[in-house]
Design goal:
Radius of gyration: 17 Å
CATH architecture: Up-down Bundle
CATH superfamily: Glycerol uptake facilitator protein
Helix content: 55-70%
Number of strands: 0
Strand content: under 5%
Oligomer: single chain
Distance between the termini: 35 Å
Amino acid sequence: MTPFIAEIVGTMLLILLGNGVVANCLLKDTLGNNGGWLLINLAWGLAVYVAVVVAGPISGAHLNPAVSVGLAVAGKFAWAKVGPYVLAQFIGAGLGSILVWLTYRDHYKATDDVDAKLGTFATGAVYRNPVFNVMTELIGTFVLVFTALYIAGPTFEASGISEVSFGLGSVGALPIALTVVVIGMSLGGATGYAINPARDLGPRIMHGLLPIGKKRDGDWSYSWVPVVGPILGATIAALLYNVF
């Protein structure tokens, strides 16, 4: 498995299990219907764990364009590799969305709530205020990337690709998974904590392409927020890490 393929597979698993729990909680007649915010947060953290266990030893398990950019800003990842990693992440996010749709195909057909359907693909703010929506995503991603840099430490390396890796085997993936859980629990209630441009924009595109029955528009006027906010947050985290 190459780093490019690892990022595709890892991001695919992330979206399959992450958006999968949202579909399980929101779509009509699922056994997990109304499972609640706690279930969603825990499952997203475990989704990160699974994805990092698979991709970590090969690609460093960025799984997120903001992480790739942040590591490049911090000098821990070659800028020339950012583009291929981001492409792989978007491909993986799209594939993960397709698998969620295949899993819950009949439930999408049975669900009349078009907002709930969109919510199984992409995030959105409870109150629309672009400046503060971006700030929320910025803060959440800052916590993710800043913590990831300290978890990895400056001396760890993954297959010569990136200085971020998980030297404790599968156990090494747990700290970043727990970080995602606490970000969701503490900071996710305002915008749904995308904290990952590929996680939001890739599935948002698939929402428009997949036959999920009655649907609304993709809320494209908001779609830039989960892209800009995470990139800014990751950049600030990397710069501050270097200062410290």
